[in-house]
Amino acid sequence: MAYLTKTEDHRYNLVRYRVRYRIYFPDGSWVARSRRYETLAVGRVKVELASALESRTRQLQQSPEDIKIWKNEGLLTAQEAERLDLVPAPQRKTLEQAMDEYRATWVVSPQEASIREGRVRIITQILGAKTPIVEFNYGHGEFLKTKLRERKVKVVTIRRYLQDLRRCFRHQVRLQVLPYNPFAELSTGRVPPAERPKQTRLTNAQVIEVLTKAGDRIQKESGARVLHGWLLVFLLLVFGTGLRRKEAMLARWEHVDWVNRFLVVPAENAKDGEERRVGLGRRLFNELLARREEEGLILPRYHPATITGAVTKHFAACGLPMRLHDTRHTYATLLQEDAGARPDQAMQRTGHGDLAMLTRYTHPQVDEVLEDRLGFMQEDEKETRH
User: Fold this and answer.
1) How far apart are CA 123 and CA 148, in angstroms?
2) Are 183 and 162 in contact (CB under 8 A)?
Protein backbone atom coordinates (compact mmCIF):
# COMPACT_ATOMS: atom_id res chain seq x y z
CA MET A 1 0.00 0.00 0.00
CA ALA A 2 1.32 3.43 -0.93
CA TYR A 3 2.37 5.56 2.04
CA LEU A 4 3.83 8.96 2.89
CA THR A 5 6.90 9.55 5.08
CA LYS A 6 8.68 12.63 6.35
CA THR A 7 12.43 13.01 5.77
CA GLU A 8 14.87 15.67 7.00
CA ASP A 9 18.02 16.89 5.29
CA HIS A 10 20.14 18.23 8.20
CA ARG A 11 22.83 19.60 5.90
CA TYR A 12 20.50 22.18 4.40
CA ASN A 13 17.92 22.18 7.20
CA LEU A 14 15.20 21.07 4.77
CA VAL A 15 12.16 18.85 5.22
CA ARG A 16 10.92 16.62 2.39
CA TYR A 17 7.89 14.33 2.08
CA ARG A 18 8.47 11.03 0.32
CA VAL A 19 5.74 8.92 -1.32
CA ARG A 20 6.52 5.21 -1.74
CA TYR A 21 4.41 2.91 -3.93
CA ARG A 22 4.50 -0.05 -6.29
CA ILE A 23 3.61 -0.41 -9.95
CA TYR A 24 2.25 -3.81 -11.05
CA PHE A 25 2.59 -4.78 -14.71
CA PRO A 26 0.36 -7.15 -16.74
CA ASP A 27 3.16 -9.73 -17.06
CA GLY A 28 3.12 -10.26 -13.27
CA SER A 29 6.24 -8.23 -12.45
CA TRP A 30 6.33 -5.11 -10.28
CA VAL A 31 8.68 -2.29 -9.32
CA ALA A 32 8.93 -0.08 -6.24
CA ARG A 33 9.05 3.67 -6.78
CA SER A 34 9.38 6.75 -4.57
CA ARG A 35 8.97 10.48 -5.17
CA ARG A 36 9.94 13.44 -2.94
CA TYR A 37 7.88 16.60 -2.52
CA GLU A 38 8.54 19.85 -0.69
CA THR A 39 5.20 20.35 1.08
CA LEU A 40 2.91 18.10 3.06
CA ALA A 41 -0.15 19.20 1.08
CA VAL A 42 1.39 18.10 -2.21
CA GLY A 43 2.57 14.84 -0.64
CA ARG A 44 -0.94 13.99 0.52
CA VAL A 45 -2.37 14.55 -2.95
CA LYS A 46 0.34 12.43 -4.55
CA VAL A 47 -0.04 9.56 -2.08
CA GLU A 48 -3.76 9.34 -2.91
CA LEU A 49 -2.92 9.10 -6.61
CA ALA A 50 -0.19 6.56 -5.89
CA SER A 51 -2.60 4.42 -3.84
CA ALA A 52 -5.05 4.36 -6.75
CA LEU A 53 -2.21 3.51 -9.14
CA GLU A 54 -1.03 0.62 -6.98
CA SER A 55 -4.52 -0.79 -6.42
CA ARG A 56 -5.69 -0.57 -10.02
CA THR A 57 -2.53 -1.91 -11.61
CA ARG A 58 -2.51 -4.85 -9.18
CA GLN A 59 -6.03 -5.79 -10.31
CA LEU A 60 -5.46 -4.91 -14.01
CA GLN A 61 -8.14 -2.22 -13.83
CA GLN A 62 -6.12 0.67 -15.26
CA SER A 63 -7.65 2.60 -18.14
CA PRO A 64 -5.85 4.77 -20.75
CA GLU A 65 -7.17 7.85 -18.95
CA ASP A 66 -5.69 6.64 -15.64
CA ILE A 67 -2.30 6.01 -17.23
CA LYS A 68 -2.30 9.47 -18.79
CA ILE A 69 -3.08 11.14 -15.43
CA TRP A 70 -0.41 9.17 -13.54
CA LYS A 71 2.15 10.00 -16.22
CA ASN A 72 1.29 13.72 -16.11
CA GLU A 73 1.57 13.70 -12.30
CA GLY A 74 5.07 12.27 -12.53
CA LEU A 75 4.22 8.90 -10.99
CA LEU A 76 5.00 6.98 -14.20
CA THR A 77 7.79 7.22 -16.71
CA ALA A 78 7.04 7.00 -20.44
CA GLN A 79 8.37 3.43 -20.53
CA GLU A 80 6.28 2.33 -17.53
CA ALA A 81 3.16 3.91 -19.04
CA GLU A 82 3.76 1.97 -22.26
CA ARG A 83 4.09 -1.32 -20.38
CA LEU A 84 0.82 -0.69 -18.50
CA ASP A 85 -1.05 0.08 -21.70
CA LEU A 86 -0.27 -3.27 -23.33
CA VAL A 87 -3.33 -5.11 -21.93
CA PRO A 88 -6.69 -3.43 -22.62
CA ALA A 89 -9.55 -3.70 -20.10
CA PRO A 90 -11.76 -6.09 -22.16
CA GLN A 91 -9.21 -8.88 -21.64
CA ARG A 92 -9.74 -9.00 -17.86
CA LYS A 93 -10.60 -12.44 -16.49
CA THR A 94 -14.31 -13.13 -16.09
CA LEU A 95 -16.16 -15.27 -13.56
CA GLU A 96 -16.77 -17.87 -16.24
CA GLN A 97 -13.04 -18.15 -16.95
CA ALA A 98 -12.23 -18.32 -13.23
CA MET A 99 -14.76 -21.12 -12.76
CA ASP A 100 -13.21 -23.05 -15.66
CA GLU A 101 -9.82 -22.81 -13.93
CA TYR A 102 -11.45 -23.88 -10.66
CA ARG A 103 -12.89 -26.99 -12.37
CA ALA A 104 -9.39 -28.00 -13.39
CA THR A 105 -8.42 -28.30 -9.71
CA TRP A 106 -11.11 -30.87 -8.89
CA VAL A 107 -10.03 -34.35 -7.85
CA VAL A 108 -13.42 -35.88 -7.11
CA SER A 109 -15.64 -38.73 -8.24
CA PRO A 110 -17.77 -38.31 -11.40
CA GLN A 111 -20.90 -38.10 -9.24
CA GLU A 112 -19.48 -35.29 -7.08
CA ALA A 113 -18.17 -33.50 -10.20
CA SER A 114 -21.67 -33.55 -11.69
CA ILE A 115 -23.13 -32.04 -8.49
CA ARG A 116 -20.49 -29.31 -8.44
CA GLU A 117 -21.11 -28.54 -12.10
CA GLY A 118 -24.73 -27.82 -11.26
CA ARG A 119 -23.75 -25.45 -8.44
CA VAL A 120 -21.18 -23.65 -10.59
CA ARG A 121 -23.75 -23.20 -13.36
CA ILE A 122 -26.20 -21.57 -10.96
CA ILE A 123 -23.50 -19.34 -9.42
CA THR A 124 -22.44 -17.99 -12.82
CA GLN A 125 -26.08 -17.56 -13.80
CA ILE A 126 -26.87 -15.45 -10.71
CA LEU A 127 -23.65 -13.42 -10.54
CA GLY A 128 -23.05 -13.05 -14.29
CA ALA A 129 -20.69 -15.24 -16.29
CA LYS A 130 -19.04 -12.28 -18.06
CA THR A 131 -18.50 -10.17 -14.92
CA PRO A 132 -14.77 -9.45 -14.35
CA ILE A 133 -13.63 -11.06 -11.12
CA VAL A 134 -11.86 -7.86 -10.04
CA GLU A 135 -15.27 -6.21 -9.66
CA PHE A 136 -16.58 -8.69 -7.09
CA ASN A 137 -16.90 -7.79 -3.43
CA TYR A 138 -18.50 -9.19 -0.27
CA GLY A 139 -21.91 -7.84 -1.30
CA HIS A 140 -22.04 -10.15 -4.29
CA GLY A 141 -21.84 -13.11 -1.90
CA GLU A 142 -24.76 -11.76 0.12
CA PHE A 143 -26.69 -11.28 -3.14
CA LEU A 144 -26.03 -14.93 -4.06
CA LYS A 145 -27.31 -16.07 -0.65
CA THR A 146 -30.50 -14.00 -1.06
CA LYS A 147 -31.23 -15.42 -4.50
CA LEU A 148 -30.64 -18.99 -3.34
CA ARG A 149 -33.00 -18.50 -0.39
CA GLU A 150 -35.63 -17.17 -2.80
CA ARG A 151 -35.28 -20.48 -4.65
CA LYS A 152 -36.01 -22.32 -1.38
CA VAL A 153 -32.51 -23.79 -1.20
CA LYS A 154 -31.68 -25.17 2.24
CA VAL A 155 -28.99 -23.50 4.32
CA VAL A 156 -26.86 -26.66 4.33
CA THR A 157 -26.88 -26.65 0.53
CA ILE A 158 -26.18 -22.90 0.36
CA ARG A 159 -23.02 -23.62 2.33
CA ARG A 160 -21.86 -25.77 -0.59
CA TYR A 161 -22.47 -22.94 -3.04
CA LEU A 162 -20.49 -20.50 -0.91
CA GLN A 163 -17.73 -23.05 -0.49
CA ASP A 164 -17.39 -23.31 -4.29
CA LEU A 165 -17.35 -19.52 -4.61
CA ARG A 166 -14.67 -19.15 -1.92
CA ARG A 167 -12.50 -21.88 -3.43
CA CYS A 168 -12.75 -20.37 -6.89
CA PHE A 169 -11.56 -16.96 -5.72
CA ARG A 170 -8.95 -18.47 -3.40
CA HIS A 171 -7.49 -20.17 -6.46
CA GLN A 172 -7.27 -16.80 -8.22
CA VAL A 173 -5.42 -15.39 -5.21
CA ARG A 174 -2.93 -18.26 -5.49
CA LEU A 175 -2.48 -17.38 -9.16
CA GLN A 176 -1.81 -13.79 -8.03
CA VAL A 177 -4.65 -12.50 -10.18
CA LEU A 178 -6.39 -11.09 -7.10
CA PRO A 179 -4.74 -9.54 -4.04
CA TYR A 180 -7.27 -11.07 -1.62
CA ASN A 181 -10.38 -13.25 -1.52
CA PRO A 182 -13.48 -11.03 -1.11
CA PHE A 183 -15.52 -14.03 0.05
CA ALA A 184 -13.08 -15.40 2.64
CA GLU A 185 -15.38 -14.44 5.55
CA LEU A 186 -18.67 -15.22 3.79
CA SER A 187 -20.90 -17.52 5.85
CA THR A 188 -24.48 -18.73 5.86
CA GLY A 189 -24.80 -18.45 9.63
CA ARG A 190 -26.58 -20.98 11.81
CA VAL A 191 -28.73 -23.70 10.37
CA PRO A 192 -32.42 -23.16 11.25
CA PRO A 193 -33.82 -25.73 13.72
CA ALA A 194 -36.23 -27.03 11.07
CA GLU A 195 -33.32 -27.91 8.76
CA ARG A 196 -31.05 -29.50 11.34
CA PRO A 197 -30.54 -33.26 10.96
CA LYS A 198 -32.32 -35.39 13.52
CA GLN A 199 -30.13 -37.23 15.98
CA THR A 200 -30.52 -41.00 16.00
CA ARG A 201 -29.66 -43.04 19.06
CA LEU A 202 -29.61 -46.82 18.62
CA THR A 203 -30.56 -49.35 21.22
CA ASN A 204 -28.16 -52.05 22.31
CA ALA A 205 -30.00 -54.61 20.14
CA GLN A 206 -29.73 -52.35 17.08
CA VAL A 207 -25.99 -51.86 17.60
CA ILE A 208 -25.51 -55.62 17.83
CA GLU A 209 -27.41 -56.02 14.54
CA VAL A 210 -25.25 -53.37 12.83
CA LEU A 211 -22.04 -55.03 14.02
CA THR A 212 -23.24 -58.50 13.02
CA LYS A 213 -24.08 -57.39 9.50
CA ALA A 214 -20.74 -55.61 9.24
CA GLY A 215 -18.99 -58.90 10.03
CA ASP A 216 -21.08 -60.71 7.43
CA ARG A 217 -20.26 -58.11 4.77
CA ILE A 218 -16.55 -58.41 5.40
CA GLN A 219 -16.74 -62.17 4.85
CA LYS A 220 -18.68 -61.78 1.60
CA GLU A 221 -17.12 -58.68 0.04
CA SER A 222 -13.74 -57.12 -0.51
CA GLY A 223 -12.45 -53.75 -1.64
CA ALA A 224 -12.84 -50.19 -0.44
CA ARG A 225 -16.60 -50.65 -0.02
CA VAL A 226 -15.99 -52.34 3.31
CA LEU A 227 -12.63 -50.66 4.05
CA HIS A 228 -10.71 -53.87 3.33
CA GLY A 229 -11.99 -55.65 6.41
CA TRP A 230 -11.70 -52.68 8.75
CA LEU A 231 -15.38 -51.72 8.74
CA LEU A 232 -16.18 -53.84 11.81
CA VAL A 233 -13.18 -52.47 13.72
CA PHE A 234 -14.09 -48.90 12.85
CA LEU A 235 -17.71 -49.40 13.95
CA LEU A 236 -16.59 -51.02 17.20
CA LEU A 237 -14.25 -48.09 17.74
CA VAL A 238 -16.85 -45.35 17.24
CA PHE A 239 -19.73 -47.18 18.92
CA GLY A 240 -17.58 -48.48 21.76
CA THR A 241 -15.54 -45.36 22.57
CA GLY A 242 -17.57 -42.43 21.22
CA LEU A 243 -14.59 -41.12 19.26
CA ARG A 244 -15.18 -38.51 16.59
CA ARG A 245 -14.21 -39.44 13.04
CA LYS A 246 -10.98 -37.43 13.16
CA GLU A 247 -10.06 -38.83 16.57
CA ALA A 248 -10.62 -42.39 15.37
CA MET A 249 -8.62 -41.87 12.17
CA LEU A 250 -5.67 -40.39 14.11
CA ALA A 251 -5.65 -43.06 16.83
CA ARG A 252 -2.29 -44.82 16.93
CA TRP A 253 -1.14 -48.16 18.31
CA GLU A 254 1.19 -46.45 20.76
CA HIS A 255 -1.86 -44.71 22.30
CA VAL A 256 -3.24 -48.07 23.51
CA ASP A 257 -2.68 -49.09 27.12
CA TRP A 258 -2.67 -52.87 26.65
CA VAL A 259 -2.47 -53.59 30.38
CA ASN A 260 -5.43 -51.50 31.57
CA ARG A 261 -7.39 -51.64 28.27
CA PHE A 262 -7.54 -47.89 27.67
CA LEU A 263 -7.02 -45.73 24.61
CA VAL A 264 -5.49 -42.29 25.09
CA VAL A 265 -6.82 -39.46 22.91
CA PRO A 266 -3.96 -36.90 22.77
CA ALA A 267 -4.74 -33.22 23.19
CA GLU A 268 -3.67 -32.44 19.62
CA ASN A 269 -6.25 -34.92 18.26
CA ALA A 270 -9.14 -33.92 20.54
CA LYS A 271 -11.63 -31.28 19.44
CA ASP A 272 -11.50 -29.49 22.80
CA GLY A 273 -7.69 -29.66 22.93
CA GLU A 274 -7.63 -31.72 26.13
CA GLU A 275 -6.26 -35.23 26.53
CA ARG A 276 -8.68 -37.92 27.68
CA ARG A 277 -8.88 -41.70 28.08
CA VAL A 278 -11.57 -44.06 26.83
CA GLY A 279 -12.00 -47.67 27.82
CA LEU A 280 -11.66 -50.51 25.32
CA GLY A 281 -14.50 -52.98 25.77
CA ARG A 282 -13.58 -56.66 25.67
CA ARG A 283 -14.78 -57.27 22.10
CA LEU A 284 -13.02 -54.19 20.69
CA PHE A 285 -9.87 -54.95 22.69
CA ASN A 286 -9.69 -58.46 21.26
CA GLU A 287 -10.16 -57.19 17.71
CA LEU A 288 -7.29 -54.75 18.20
CA LEU A 289 -5.17 -57.40 19.92
CA ALA A 290 -5.50 -59.65 16.88
CA ARG A 291 -4.18 -56.83 14.63
CA ARG A 292 -1.70 -55.36 17.10
CA GLU A 293 1.35 -53.50 15.84
CA GLU A 294 4.07 -51.56 17.62
CA GLU A 295 3.45 -48.15 16.04
CA GLY A 296 1.57 -46.30 13.34
CA LEU A 297 -2.12 -45.56 12.81
CA ILE A 298 -4.63 -48.13 14.02
CA LEU A 299 -6.87 -47.61 10.98
CA PRO A 300 -5.45 -47.56 7.45
CA ARG A 301 -5.04 -44.09 5.94
CA TYR A 302 -8.38 -43.60 4.17
CA HIS A 303 -9.87 -40.37 2.92
CA PRO A 304 -12.47 -39.13 5.46
CA ALA A 305 -15.17 -39.13 2.77
CA THR A 306 -14.40 -42.80 2.00
CA ILE A 307 -14.97 -43.80 5.62
CA THR A 308 -18.12 -41.71 5.97
CA GLY A 309 -19.50 -43.08 2.70
CA ALA A 310 -18.82 -46.71 3.64
CA VAL A 311 -20.41 -46.32 7.08
CA THR A 312 -23.44 -44.42 5.73
CA LYS A 313 -24.04 -47.09 3.08
CA HIS A 314 -23.81 -49.80 5.72
CA PHE A 315 -26.35 -48.00 7.92
CA ALA A 316 -28.67 -47.70 4.93
CA ALA A 317 -28.29 -51.43 4.22
CA CYS A 318 -29.31 -52.03 7.85
CA GLY A 319 -32.41 -49.85 7.35
CA LEU A 320 -31.09 -47.10 9.63
CA PRO A 321 -31.18 -43.54 8.20
CA MET A 322 -28.45 -42.24 10.50
CA ARG A 323 -25.17 -40.33 10.30
CA LEU A 324 -21.72 -41.40 11.37
CA HIS A 325 -21.76 -38.82 14.18
CA ASP A 326 -24.87 -40.50 15.62
CA THR A 327 -22.60 -43.30 16.85
CA ARG A 328 -21.22 -40.78 19.34
CA HIS A 329 -24.68 -39.93 20.64
CA THR A 330 -25.45 -43.64 20.92
CA TYR A 331 -22.29 -44.25 22.93
CA ALA A 332 -22.99 -41.35 25.31
CA THR A 333 -26.55 -42.55 25.88
CA LEU A 334 -25.80 -46.26 26.38
CA LEU A 335 -22.78 -45.53 28.56
CA GLN A 336 -25.09 -43.92 31.11
CA GLU A 337 -28.25 -45.98 30.64
CA ASP A 338 -26.74 -49.47 30.16
CA ALA A 339 -23.27 -49.17 31.70
CA GLY A 340 -24.42 -47.04 34.63
CA ALA A 341 -21.81 -44.30 34.24
CA ARG A 342 -22.43 -41.05 36.08
CA PRO A 343 -22.78 -37.90 33.92
CA ASP A 344 -19.36 -36.64 34.98
CA GLN A 345 -17.79 -40.01 34.16
CA ALA A 346 -19.47 -40.07 30.77
CA MET A 347 -18.30 -36.54 30.10
CA GLN A 348 -14.77 -37.62 30.87
CA ARG A 349 -15.07 -40.27 28.18
CA THR A 350 -16.72 -38.16 25.48
CA GLY A 351 -14.82 -34.92 26.06
CA HIS A 352 -17.99 -32.82 26.30
CA GLY A 353 -17.89 -29.59 28.29
CA ASP A 354 -21.56 -29.18 29.20
CA LEU A 355 -21.03 -30.05 32.87
CA ALA A 356 -18.38 -27.40 33.44
CA MET A 357 -19.50 -26.50 36.94
CA LEU A 358 -19.72 -30.14 38.00
CA THR A 359 -16.22 -30.99 36.81
CA ARG A 360 -14.82 -27.86 38.44
CA TYR A 361 -15.72 -29.20 41.88
CA THR A 362 -15.49 -32.96 41.29
CA HIS A 363 -12.54 -35.00 40.13
CA PRO A 364 -13.80 -38.50 39.29
CA GLN A 365 -11.27 -41.22 38.59
CA VAL A 366 -12.62 -43.83 36.20
CA ASP A 367 -10.39 -46.88 36.68
CA GLU A 368 -12.97 -49.49 35.71
CA VAL A 369 -13.55 -50.29 32.03
CA LEU A 370 -17.21 -49.30 32.08
CA GLU A 371 -17.48 -50.14 28.39
CA ASP A 372 -17.47 -53.84 29.36
CA ARG A 373 -21.05 -53.35 30.58
CA LEU A 374 -22.26 -52.43 27.10
CA GLY A 375 -24.28 -55.32 25.75
CA PHE A 376 -22.73 -55.32 22.29
CA MET A 377 -19.23 -55.56 23.80
CA GLN A 378 -19.95 -58.96 25.36
CA GLU A 379 -18.50 -62.10 23.80
CA ASP A 380 -18.06 -65.66 24.86
CA GLU A 381 -14.74 -66.64 26.42
CA LYS A 382 -14.45 -69.40 23.79
CA GLU A 383 -14.34 -66.77 21.04
CA THR A 384 -11.62 -64.77 22.76
CA ARG A 385 -8.60 -64.54 20.50
CA HIS A 386 -5.07 -64.32 21.82
Assistant:
1) 9
2) yes
- Nearest Cα residue to 115 out of 133, 103, 129, 127: 103
Helices (H), 59-109: 64-72, 78-84, 95-103
Could you please state the CATH topology (level 3) that the domain comprising 95-190 is classified under.
DNA polymerase; domain 1 (1.10.150)
**Residue 204: is its pLDDT beyond 60?**
yes
The Cα 292–Cα 286 span in angstroms is 10
What is the rounded distance in angstroms from the CA atom of residue 85 to the CA atom of residue 282? Answer: 75
Write out the DSSP string of 7-25. Answer: EEETTTTEEEEEEEEEEE-
Question: Contacts by 225-230 with C-beta closer than 8 Å and gap 24+?
Answer: 225/310, 225/313, 226/310, 226/314, 227/300, 227/302, 227/306, 227/307, 227/310, 228/300, 230/299, 230/300
Half-sphere exposure of 8 (CA within 13 A, CB side): 2
| Domain 204-383: assigned CATH number | 1.10.443.10
Of 89, 62, 91, give the one whose Cα is nearest residue 75.
Answer: 62
**Alpha carbon distance 28, 301 (integer Å):** 40
pLDDT tens digits for range 328-362: 888 888 877 777 777 667 766 777 665 553 333 33
